[in-house]
Amino acid sequence: MAEQRLLVEGDTCWRTVEAERFAPIIDGADYLAHVKSAMLGAENRILLVGWDFDARTTFEPGRGTLPGPNQLGPFLFWLLWRRPHLKVYVLKTNLRLLSVFERYWYSIVPVEWLNRITSERMHLAVDGAHPTGAVHHQKVVVIDDAVAFCGGIDLTLGRWDTRDHTADNPGRRGGGESYGPRHEVAAVVDGPAAQALGELARDRWRQATGEELPPLGPGASVWPQHCEPALRHVEVGIARTLPSLPEREEVREVEALNLAAIAAARDIIYLENQYLASRGICEALADRLRERNGPEVIVVLPRTSESPLERESMDSARERMLRLLWEADEHDRLGVYWPAVPGGQSLYVHSKVVVIDDRFLRIGSSNLNNRSLGFDSECDLALEDSPDREDIRTHIADMRDGLLAEHLRLPLDSVRAEIRARGSILKAVDTLRGRSLRKFTPHMVSADAGPFAENDLMDPVRVPTSLAVSVASVAIALVTWPLVKGAPGAWSVVRAVGKRVGLPI
């Protein structure tokens, strides 16, 4: 019997469109070089949509093999000077002050003034078309509607790193800071898939500014030099999260796609993510772990989140989710790991990847937390196998095994040989992991528990109906935390009683 398709327009994705070429891009060094290479071919329009931008972002630290200035801001102005018909549009969320330009005073000048003092063909905007507290988390670069990049990488400081993730790489210095090793994943497409992402980006620009940007007709190829396509003429799904607004219903395609993919897994669910905080996703994983003949589940996460606020909210929620999964792992099919570089420093995992068997691959901006499924805006790309496309299945397996080889710091052939010998990806990983891929343990995460886990203000499932109620949930969490911490299982009692009487917990 034929398997049910995972990519369903209007349900688990917005569009399914052909990519004439598709390539995954692993880690920031390749991503930044490929983005610059593609922009070098731009003739009409560059649309940059992201959570953050910084003009000091260096494309090729210490090398500069591509033409033009090596930093984002000077490069864009250099490109405008060389291309008389080119226009550049930069759109970021308004969560933080604009840092598109490198000098401090630029970051505090209203964006309207910046547009007056820069090139008339350079257009900057911040996007406030979202609910209070939400952010636009989509990360999309579209060049001439001909090539588009989509994934989890912003064009900002601290994203550059190579796949060897050494403990101290001088290329990770920028803006007066030194950044730690970082793991990222994105993808690049052309053809109709790029045109669809162009439509998405133009719609974002219209919502933010009221300005309609016209679609561009077919033009010259701007596919990045030295980027080898992994697949050609392949159907790609575009899945989004969009929060509800007065004029728009919420869109939860990312959540629907994740749940459908988890339910469809036969042998292996492989996840890489910055967070593991969504109860809905983790309950779906737990259901699969309880099955006698269910799939193995491998999850790769950062050891800790980056900021104190993230640690208080995301890491404390992760502690609960991990205990849920460990309790459900009745058949020893779960492995949750954090990568370490030589010397023991943790590798910060910022990638957002889902791989299901050799059937399904998802790369994008969405995290496995509540915000990414219904509160912030997100955009993911997905591939699904086809009965007549063995190359798709091969690529999906290559992607998963290649990521594991990167984290295990071993050749791909060695990893695959161990998988064949063990008959299990999970057993192979546990045999090979040494000190480079370390397991989370209950004792390790016990210190992460905190009052803001699963808090409706920090990580809302959808747009809150009342900001006051969400703020009250923080106060209630702080007041009840001593009881919860002191008595195992007390939180479930507090939560049940609170909900019964209408408290926001």
UniProtKB/TrEMBL annotation:
<dbReference type="InterPro" id="IPR015679">
    <property type="entry name" value="PLipase_D_fam"/>
</dbReference>
<keyword id="KW-0677">Repeat</keyword>
<feature type="domain" description="PLD phosphodiesterase">
    <location>
        <begin position="132"/>
        <end position="159"/>
    </location>
</feature>
<dbReference type="Pfam" id="PF00614">
    <property type="entry name" value="PLDc"/>
</dbReference>
<dbReference type="InterPro" id="IPR001736">
    <property type="entry name" value="PLipase_D/transphosphatidylase"/>
</dbReference>
<dbReference type="GO" id="GO:0004630">
    <property type="term" value="F:phospholipase D activity"/>
</dbReference>
<keyword id="KW-0443">Lipid metabolism</keyword>
<protein>
    <submittedName>
        <fullName>Phospholipase D/transphosphatidylase</fullName>
    </submittedName>
</protein>
<keyword id="KW-0378">Hydrolase</keyword>
<dbReference type="GO" id="GO:0009395">
    <property type="term" value="P:phospholipid catabolic process"/>
</dbReference>
<feature type="domain" description="PLD phosphodiesterase">
    <location>
        <begin position="345"/>
        <end position="372"/>
    </location>
</feature>
<feature type="region of interest" description="Disordered">
    <location>
        <begin position="161"/>
        <end position="181"/>
    </location>
</feature>
<dbReference type="Pfam" id="PF13091">
    <property type="entry name" value="PLDc_2"/>
</dbReference>
<dbReference type="InterPro" id="IPR025202">
    <property type="entry name" value="PLD-like_dom"/>
</dbReference>
